[in-house]
Design goal:
4-stranded parallel sheet; Rossmann fold; 10 helices; alpha/beta; 8 strands
Length: 285
């Protein structure tokens, strides 16, 4: 074989090999951590224990739904790997579990993490890591801040809008109402309270006769209910999570306090609130 022809043959073979290996490399798709051609890793934080454990059923329901999706073939051939950890509704624990999801499990995003205080604790971290904090299970107004937290997306109707609706109804139907408020002493409770006051406007100061706050670590809110009854309030705005909502309904019934009772939607559960409180005790809410 002439020298020039031999060189061309070698060069052609080398180019063919390079083209083959290059096309293979180009064909390999690039994904963020948590996604492959066969799997999507989804992280979740839920209070399976602690004072808000009634919400744990949400995580179990999501897990069951994703299993159904997988059984039906997944999403475009990808199976969902749903990794859900218990944070006991404790922000320090939320931070610990979220770091585990991001840095150890390497999830694609954190989906539907529950609670205003827990989500507040991880918002800056997830945004700094550019890991989506997707469809947070809390209605606080703070989640609508795409300028400062573009990786956080809310989902629920916001709490302030809800209590503004209650306030509008009270002003129309009970303009002389004496309102007693029980609220959780954190961003969740304060958001609801602000909405109520904004909705009542100039009349908030005169219509709200007592505000009682409780800590989520408290074993009971019975004493707060007794104080609210003694205030003479004839309207009760109940801004509580399920455990305390059930306690409030039960205690109201025990002491014979029968105000017009507004219960926030985060505790509008038959199984977690109305049943343990006693169906008879919850009539008229």
């Amino acid at each position: 074989m002439p020298s020039t022809t031999k060189k061309l043959a070698i060069a052609s073979a080398a180019f063919a090999m390079f083209a083959a290996t290059s096309s293979g490399a180009l064909a390999q798709k690039k994904y963020d951590p948590g996604a492959t051609d066969t799997e999507i890793k989804i992280g979740n934080i839920m209070p399976y224990s602690g004072p808000a454990s009634a919400y744990g059923v949400i995580g179990k329901t999501e897990e069951a739904y994703f299993k159904k999706i997988n059984a039906e073939g997944g999403i475009n051939g990808r199976k969902i790997n749903f990794i859900s950890y218990d944070d006991a509704y404790s922000p320090p624990k939320t931070v610990e579990q979220t770091r585990k999801l991001v840095e150890s499990d390497e999830v694609l995003f954190v989906f539907n993490p529950l609670g205003t205080p827990p989500n507040s604790a991880i918002q800056k971290y997830l945004n700094s890591k550019k890991v989506p904090q997707l469809f947070v299970a809390t209605g606080a107004t703070k989640w609508n801040d795409p300028k400062n937290f573009p990786w956080t997306m809310g989902w629920q109707p916001n709490y302030q809008s809800e209590t503004q609706i209650y306030a509008k109804y009270i002003l129309k139907e009970m303009p002389n109402a004496k309102i007693g408020v029980l609220y959780q002493n954190d961003d969740y409770g304060k958001d609801y309270l602000k909405g109520l006051k904004d909705g009542l406007g100039a009349k908030a100061a005169s219509m709200i006769v007592m505000e009682e706050s409780y800590e989520v670590s408290a074993p009971t809110i019975d004493s707060h209910i007794v104080k609210l009854k003694s205030s003479g309030a004839d309207v009760f705005v109940n801004i509580t999570t399920p455990k305390f909502a059930a306690q409030a309904i039960k205690k109201n019934n025990e002491i014979g306090w029968k105000p017009v009772h507004f219960l926030n939607n985060v505790s509008a559960s038959i199984g977690a609130v109305m049943k343990p409180a006693g169906f008879d005790a919850g009539q008229g809410i």
